[in-house]
């Protein structure tokens, strides 16, 4: 039963990890591009990784959809470490306290058009990442390099 439903999604995840993600990393995190970059440290290897994600800025941090579920490496690494960084719209933020939330909770913080997109894709869980207090600067401050 669940094998039939998860197999295609797993194939897409593996394709994205090995083919699409390396290409996306060339533009992710820059201003004007839809994808951001999560920088995290491997929980077993200690190696540093960069993973492109879709992120929405919310009052106290970011909300990131989990289309492949909660057992993706980047999330498990952030949970083990407790923090990482995110490059979003040309700025780098320290993110911490990764908390998995159900769609209804995340959707309350998202604009209506984003809610519709995530519902269409059947995304049931998200991760909420708090931004470290030192990074809670005015987003219009353009003194940081892009």
In a nutshell, what does this entry contain?
This is Nitroreductase/quinone reductase family protein. This protein is α+β, with helices and mostly antiparallel strands. The chain is 32% helix and 32% strand.
How would you portray this structure in words?
The chain is α+β, with helices and mostly antiparallel strands and about 150 residues long. The chain has one domain (about 1-135): Electron Transport, Fmn-binding Protein, Chain A (Pnp Oxidase, Chain A, Roll), CATH 2.30.110. It is about 30% helix and about 30% strand. The protein is built from 4 helices and 7 strands; from the N terminus they run H-E-E-E-E-H-E-E-H-H-E. It has helices at about 1-25, 75-80, 105, 110-120; strands at about 35-40, 50-55, 55-60, 60-65, 85-90, 90-100, 125-130. It has a 7-stranded antiparallel β-sheet with strand order 2-1-5-6-7-4-3. The chain is globular. It starts with a helix and ends in a 15-residue tail after the last strand. Residues about 140-145 have low confidence and may be disordered.
């Amino acid at each position: 039963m669940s094998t039939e439903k998860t197999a295609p999604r797993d194939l897409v995840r593996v394709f994205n990890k090995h083919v699409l993600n390396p290409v996306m990393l060339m533009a992710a995190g820059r201003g004007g591009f839809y994808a951001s970059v999560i920088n995290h440290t491997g929980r077993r290897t200690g190696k540093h990784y960069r993973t492109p994600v879709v992120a929405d800025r919310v009052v106290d941090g970011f909300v990131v959809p989990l289309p492949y579920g909660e057992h993706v490496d980047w999330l498990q690494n952030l949970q083990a470490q407790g923090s990482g960084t995110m490059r979003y719209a040309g700025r780098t933020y320290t993110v911490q306290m990764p908390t998995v939330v159900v769609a209804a909770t995340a959707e309350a913080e998202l604009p209506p058009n984003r809610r519709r997109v995530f519902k269409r894709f059947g995304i049931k869980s998200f991760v909420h990442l708090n931004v470290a207090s030192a990074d809670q600067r005015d987003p219009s401050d353009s003194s940081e390099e892009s």
